[in-house]
Design goal:
Blueprint (H helix, E strand, L loop, with lengths): L17 H10 L5 H11 L14 H10 L6 E7 L5 E6 L5 E9 L2 E5 L3 E3 L14 E4 L2 H16 L5 E6 L9 H12 L11 E5 L3 H8 L6 E5 L5 H7 L2 H4 L2 H15 L3 E7 L7 H11 L6 E6 L13 H13 L3 E4 L13 H9 L1
Parallel strand pairs: 4-7, 7-8, 8-9, 9-10, 10-11, 11-12
Antiparallel strand pairs: 1-2, 2-3, 3-4, 5-6
Function: Specifically methylates position 2 of adenine 2503 in 23S rRNA and position 2 of adenine 37 in tRNAs.
Keywords: 4Fe-4S, Cytoplasm, Disulfide bond, Iron, Iron-sulfur, Metal-binding, Methyltransferase, rRNA processing, S-adenosyl-L-methionine, Transferase, tRNA processing
InterPro entries: Aldolase_TIM, Methyltransferase_A, RlmN_N, RNA_MTrfase_RlmN, rRNA_lsu_MTrfase_RlmN/Cfr, rSAM, rSAM_sf
């Protein structure tokens, strides 16, 4: 089933890769080098108006203005955490809202982007699914989030050093737009984000895990697993009905064999639900067949509309010890931006409630 997307009179400038710009300039009988100039204005100089593209002729600027528009990302709110995390709530052209987060690390600035307005996957512990799926984002609407983040960082003399596609929505259900976004992000004549500094997270859309494995990229893959077996995963993640646990594990094995790259398994710990010693032992047995994998343990975020409680500190460390005793590499995610509702979907949920 194809999801809805925003219908526009004119495509967004950020919808186009450099290859698209080359085709457009050729079709409009412009010299081929103009494509590179346009791309440079958008991603190196980061202008927001065609009139600022001063090395293009007036006629070409008018043609661009008639043919394309810039993405509307109106800032509804911006919150800054004491740990340096910045969270944006943006309004789109159709009045829907999305979130984008900048996280400050010792190694640089990471930006978490959204790929859909809402989500239909239905994970029972996540705020992103509240209200269901409204529509997919266009490629340019995803790109614009990074451009906005970079413009904020420009004022500090800093840059976006890594990207995580872990915001609102299921990236693998908006696969083509996501791949167009990635193509634009990694291009050496644009923002030039290193492929190994980008991570895509999926809840387990099995056909597109195979598809992604065949893309031949160096982009990292994370899988939201959250349970060690079919029955429990179905309770927590309804997507498991469509793509059962066994099929997901087989697709992960294919990915590792095809790419030679490890997978990070995201595991949200929920008090007395999936965080006990027996769950850790069972998970270890499943993952032993994938020696390159890594488990990222995530103490669950409190969501008002959900009734899960946070795992105790002792149980978190015990879960990690059991995995490591079974030679499964495991780390505990450092919490960021908790004082500004930086967990995925929380800010948008509050905005929807207010509206």
């Amino acid at each position: 089933m194809r999801n809805k997307t925003l219908q526009v009179d004119k495509p967004f400038v950020y919808d186009y890769s450099l290859e698209d710009w080359k085709q457009w300039t050729e079709e409009n009988r412009e010299p081929a080098f103009r494509a590179g100039q346009i791309f440079d204005w958008l991603y190196v100089k980061r202008v927001t108006d065609f009139e600022e593209m001063t090395n293009l002729s007036k006629a070409l600027r008018e043609k661009l203005k008639a043919s394309f528009s810039f993405v509307t990302l109106s800032e509804i709110a911006k919150y800054e955490s004491k740990d340096g995390t910045v969270k944006f709530l943006f309004e789109l052209a159709d009045k829907n809202a999305i979130e984008t987060v900048i996280m400050k690390h010792s190694y640089g600035n990471s930006v978490c982007v959204t790929t859909q307005v809402g989500c239909r996957v239905g994970c029972t512990f996540c705020a992103s699914t509240l209200g269901g799926l409204k529509r997919d984002l266009r490629p340019g609407e995803i790109v614009a989030q990074i451009v906005k983040a970079q413009q904020l960082l420009d004022a500090k003399g800093e840059r976006v050093s890594s990207i995580v596609i872990m915001g609102i929505g299921e990236p693998f259900e908006n696969y083509d737009a996501m791949m167009k976004f990635l193509n634009i992000m990694i291009h050496p004549k644009g923002l030039n984000i290193g492929q190994r500094h980008i991570t895509v997270s999926t809840s387990g859309i099995v056909p597109n895990i195979y598809r992604f494995a065949d893309e031949d990229t160096q982009i990292n893959l994370a899988i939201s697993i959250h349970a060690p077996n079919n029955a429990l995963r179905t309770k927590l993640m309804p997507v498991n009905v469509r793509f059962p646990f066994e099929d997901l594990i087989e697709s992960c094995k294919y990915y590792m064999a095809k790419t030679g790259r490890r997978i990070t398994f995201e595991y949200a710990l929920m008090g007395n639900v999936n965080d006990q010693a027996e769950h850790a032992e069972e998970l270890a047995q499943v993952l032993k067949e994938m020696p390159m994998c890594h488990v990222n343990l995530i103490p669950v975020n409190y969501v008002q509309e959900r009734n899960y409680v946070r795992t105790t500190r002792d149980d978190i460390f015990n879960f990690q010890r059991i995995l490591e005793r079974n030679k499964i590499n495991a780390t505990i995610r450092r919490e960021q931006g908790s004082d500004i509702a930086a967990a995925c979907g929380q800010l948008r949920a509050k905005h929807m409630e207010t509206k």
